[in-house]
């Protein structure tokens, strides 16, 4: 392109200027195709990532923590996430948040700001959590499909009918769907899926809120307490401690979107500056989701009390109107089908871009012509490896389908490193904040407190998984 500009320039300066303007209109400052993302598309991506399976466990988490600590924890985690996400938004470009060099992924941002030594830790944390979230979404989608089956069974027969079903078969079906969806284009072209998933998340969250209100208004308020589940009544002291810590992990998971924040920011157009656009998107999306979270958590707890189910929608299933509950489950399945791709596409991109540097022929796509009319670019390696990725997440979901335990563990191991530690460290380095200054002490104190909470919550979730495995058999029919 530069040679073409030079050749044109030797003959006609007007033509040269026109060609330069044409090139500038088609590419960004890094030579890549012009980005077109806006506050709306970024907000849709974030809402898709934030309002996932975690929203369904918030009533249970509130029940473990009680009326004071439960809602307070939701607000505090939201505030921390908002604060650190703003720090991370300023780290998309290295050097200067407006004119500096772009970082195309979370890992590149860490490498540019903190050096190679911390890259491996970031890689392990980020992609483990992206992978784990895919497992969690498989579990949740299968639970919803199983509950839809149960609802239809109850409608066709009687409430006393034997409608037991194993969620494992639905995990397999969800996995098959994801094998096909995994052949979608790269992350930048997923905005339609993301917006559809965001609409679905609003739908089932609204249904949860609506059904909770209806149950409360109709006189269905159950036993609730200021401190949540009661020792000696609902559980013993050791169980209370473990479940409180698990509940914090469930809340942390509900706010786990920092994992893909840089990738989302890389879809934004450069005018206005990406960091300003992202901060607006974070504010809008977190305000909306926190409001939903408070409604889902508090109203769900009021409706079912200390005995609320780990997945609140399963608590509504035995009650009328069954069609509304089934519709909510359908919305969850559609949402998680899209959200699975939002979380898995960065993994696909990382693996394939890394291999392309060493084996370019392995990743290049070859056109496949269908009946001399349609041409589709396909790559055998990408088809096989993406399919194997989905298979492994499906198998793990079948082996460990423990909703609250898995959600709590994922939230615990993701929250501190990806949402708190790396954004704070990158911000300190890029802004050259002096050690032992007031701001440095504040940032490090915040990081230390979040680290302690994350470790404790992870331990509680592992304890819960170990306990559940003792009495679980895969493919066994569940009530």
UniProtKB/TrEMBL annotation:
Keyword Protein transport: no
GO cellular component, one term: membrane
Alphabetical keyword list: Amino-acid transport, Membrane, Transmembrane, Transmembrane helix, Transport
Compartments reported by the entry: Membrane
Domain of life: Eukaryota
Chain segments annotated as transmembrane: 42-61, 67-89, 190-214, 241-262, 282-302, 322-343, 380-400, 406-428, 440-466
Main localization, broad class: membrane
Biological process according to GO: amino acid transport
Domain (Amino acid transporter transmembrane): residue spans on this chain: 36-465
Pfam families linked: Aa_trans
Keyword hit for Phosphoprotein: no
Protein name: Amino acid transporter transmembrane domain-containing protein
Source species: Rhynchospora breviuscula
Highest classification ranks of the organism: Eukaryota, Viridiplantae, Streptophyta, Embryophyta, Tracheophyta
């Amino acid at each position: 392109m530069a040679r073409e500009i030079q050749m044109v320039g030797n003959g006609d300066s007007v033509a040269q200027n026109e060609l330069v303007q044409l090139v500038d209109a088609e590419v960004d400052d890094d030579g890549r195709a012009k980005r077109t993302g806006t506050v709306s598309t970024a907000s849709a991506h974030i809402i898709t990532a934030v309002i996932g399976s975690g929203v369904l466990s918030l009533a249970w988490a509130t029940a473990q923590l009680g009326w004071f600590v439960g809602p307070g924890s939701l607000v505090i985690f939201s505030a921390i996430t908002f604060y650190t996400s703003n720090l991370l938004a300023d780290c998309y470009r290295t050097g200067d948040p407006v004119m500096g060099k772009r970082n195309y992924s979370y890992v590149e941002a860490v490498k540019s700001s903190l050096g190679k030594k911390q890259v491996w830790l970031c890689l392990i944390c980020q992609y483990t959590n992206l992978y784990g979230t895919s497992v969690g979404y498989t579990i949740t989608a299968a639970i919803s499909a199983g509950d839809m089956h149960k609802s239809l069974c109850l409608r066709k027969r009687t409430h006393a009918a034997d409608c037991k079903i194993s969620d494992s078969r639905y995990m397999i079906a969800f996995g098959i769907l994801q094998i096909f969806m995994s052949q979608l284009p790269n992350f930048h072209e997923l905005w339609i899926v993301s917006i559809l998933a965001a609409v679905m998340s609003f739908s089932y969250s609204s249904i949860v809120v609506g059904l909770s209100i209806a149950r409360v208004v109709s006189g269905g308020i159950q036993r609730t307490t200021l401190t949540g589940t009661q020792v000696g009544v609902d559980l013993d002291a050791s169980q209370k401690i473990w479940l409180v810590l698990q509940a914090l992990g469930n809340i942390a998971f509900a706010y786990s979107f920092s994992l893909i924040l840089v990738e989302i920011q890389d879809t934004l157009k450069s005018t206005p500056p990406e960091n300003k656009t992202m901060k607006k998107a974070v504010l809008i999306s977190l305000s909306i989701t926190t409001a939903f979270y408070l409604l889902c958590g508090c109203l769900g707890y009021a409706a079912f009390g200390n005995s609320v189910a780990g997945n609140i929608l399963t608590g509504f299933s035995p009650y009328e109107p069954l069609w509304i509950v089934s519709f909510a489950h359908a919305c969850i399945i559609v949402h998680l089908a899209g959200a699975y791709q939002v979380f898995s596409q960065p993994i696909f991109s990382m693996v394939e871009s890394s291999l392309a540097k060493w084996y370019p022929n392995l990743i290049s796509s070859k056109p496949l012509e269908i009946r001399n009319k349609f041409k589709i670019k396909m790559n055998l390696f990408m088809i096989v490896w993406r399919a194997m990725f989905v298979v492994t997440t499906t198998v793990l979901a079948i082996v460990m389908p423990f909703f609250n335990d898995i959600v709590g563990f994922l939230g615990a191991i993701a929250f501190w490193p990806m949402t708190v530690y790396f954004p704070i460290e990158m911000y300190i380095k890029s802004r050259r904040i002096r050690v032992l200054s007031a701001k440095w002490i504040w940032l490090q104190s915040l990081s230390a407190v979040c680290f302690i909470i994350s470790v404790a919550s992870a331990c509680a979730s592992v304890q819960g998984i170990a306990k559940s495995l003792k009495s679980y058999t895969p493919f066994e029919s569940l009530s």
